[in-house]
Specification:
single chain; 64% helix; two-stranded antiparallel sheet; 6 helices; mainly alpha
Length: 208
Amino acid sequence: MAATTVTDAGSVRIITEVIPATDPRAAQLASGSQAPARTSFQTQGFCRAHPKVLGTIHIFTGIVHICSGIILTLSEHRNPSLPVASGVFFWLGILLLVSGSLLVESERRDSPVLVKACCVLSVGVVLGTLVAIGIHGTAITQITPGCEKPEPFRTRPEWCLHMESKKLSNGLDSILALLGLLEFCVAVAVLAFGYDTVRQHTYTQLAL
């Protein structure tokens, strides 16, 4: 049973009631007296960048890079083009897959470590996409491997007489260069929101 105590303090009467832990009202009072939930680290700014959407873009373009790299490596194993020889399809594709996976996970978990990791990988993506765009741009202006000016008493290979393959290669390089530009913009957006969120979190910790 609840014990009630009445205390008079001047013109004010204070009634104190002690409720046993087994009373259903105790659970209601306990849940109602809890402090409001603290605003999560992620929702302070990083959530506005929609990291799940940006991560999905990274994952999709990473898969495109790796699949393109496998196909081109098998088809150009004798005379690899500059992008194939540089391995840009594979190292950039893996970097995009890892970065995209962390971005998707950062929306599920409220972790400053994940946000910082996304920022670090985004720096790598920015640098990697700039290198990739340069490689694809150089490949577009480059002569097809094996079709350079032949040595005396030697003729050019038969495939050099047909420019359809070069046009197809230039088209693919142009598409991948545009994808690289998209990845660059996504990485810059992640860096902007991530840096602002980390800076605010650090300031909050110092203020406390």
